[in-house]
């Protein structure tokens, strides 16, 4: 497939959200082992520990060694499991509440440097003039090359009102740009909404947080208060990396019939074999706190389009999958990321200030589809821009991540091919062309996919993807065949109102 932008993470003011998990907080700190400890291997671990203590070139702290051993053991499982130290655990809890401390940029790693995918609106980085496409080459005096993305992210984190100096390489600039940014705590609003045309609303969810369901409900209520005769709604989940599981259940419940199945999960533990319904007890923050209770009844029946892309992951895919299975919405855009696993946050004894973020289950849509390493295939494939999506084949998905879980309904994994030289050259050509484009602002007048969604709701022609990409495998297409609408190969399609 060629080179890709790897390890996209969100420094929502310093905290990594990553291709976010469908997170559940587990109150159980420790569970009974299912088998006795392998004594020979444990003895070998102790021997290595002793060898390092006695023979390493300089003394090593016991706690550091053991913490790194735990961290490596958990990280070796899959891309989404990790050990959280005190600071990391605290920041994760804050992240689910929508607040972060740092500079405010969404980033990836490219050619050994941190690449700015997007500055978060009104963040310190945004105000400092950081732009999408900038390459961060130094953090204070430390070169970025040689650091992992996580290490670079940790250096950009910090306490409020502390400063960090970024050295930036920018296209068309001959000299490096040096910017000093003051870290701040910023509360990120996960829901945006507006009426894009009379009678047609747009609701964007940037990340599933604890307040998301209530915030979305308030935005929709306000929209109906000003426009009682709403004709159609666009739910925008593009580049939404996921978040907390109750948020996904609540957003789905807002549009689905009462009490239907939204998602099921399955793993080793009995507690991981669960079914989640469109009921307040599965998404409300507490008894009698159903944020959806005041939504107009019309929301359950209003024609609905869900916009997704490769950056739509996990909780976003739960919502898109449920609405697609019940044929409640038309899914539009490009194939999603394919993260079909649930992570539980397990606090560790004795002080419960550290934790393990552990993959404990796979999740399935109401029809039993597994999203893992496959994703949601839209009903209507629509490019990001009117002239196509140049980087469509270069964007990283779950199936591209090292040690990703396989799709348990498709155990036959395809061998990854090595890209040929001419393919790499084509990758570079497409990347160069894409840099000439103005960064897309979701919800703006230039938002091509949103315009096509509104056209669909109005019964007007929709400009479909110029070249429909093949599914990741024939089995992907077969699995989604019954759920996909019959889309003609013409560049436009006349559709009726739903």
TrEMBL record:
- Tell me which EC number(s) this protein carries: 3.4.21.102
Which residue stretches does the UniProt record annotate as biased composition, category Basic and acidic residues?
472-498
Where is the segment annotated Disordered?
465-498
SUPFAM superfamilies the record matches: ClpP/crotonase, PDZ domain-like
Superkingdom assignment: Bacteria
One Pfam family hit: Peptidase_S41
Q: What class of enzyme is it?
A: hydrolase
Q: Which UniProt keywords apply?
A: Hydrolase, Protease, Serine protease
Q: Which residues form the PDZ domain?
A: 89-157
Q: Molecular function terms in GO for this entry?
A: serine-type endopeptidase activity
GO CC term, one of those recorded: outer membrane-bounded periplasmic space
Picking any one GO biological process from the record gives: signal transduction
* The family this protein is said to belong to: Belongs to the peptidase S41A family.
Enumerate the PANTHER family for this protein. Answer: CARBOXY-TERMINAL PROCESSING PROTEASE CTPA, TAIL-SPECIFIC PROTEASE
**The protein, known as:** Carboxyl-terminal processing protease
Organism, per UniProt? Glaciimonas immobilis
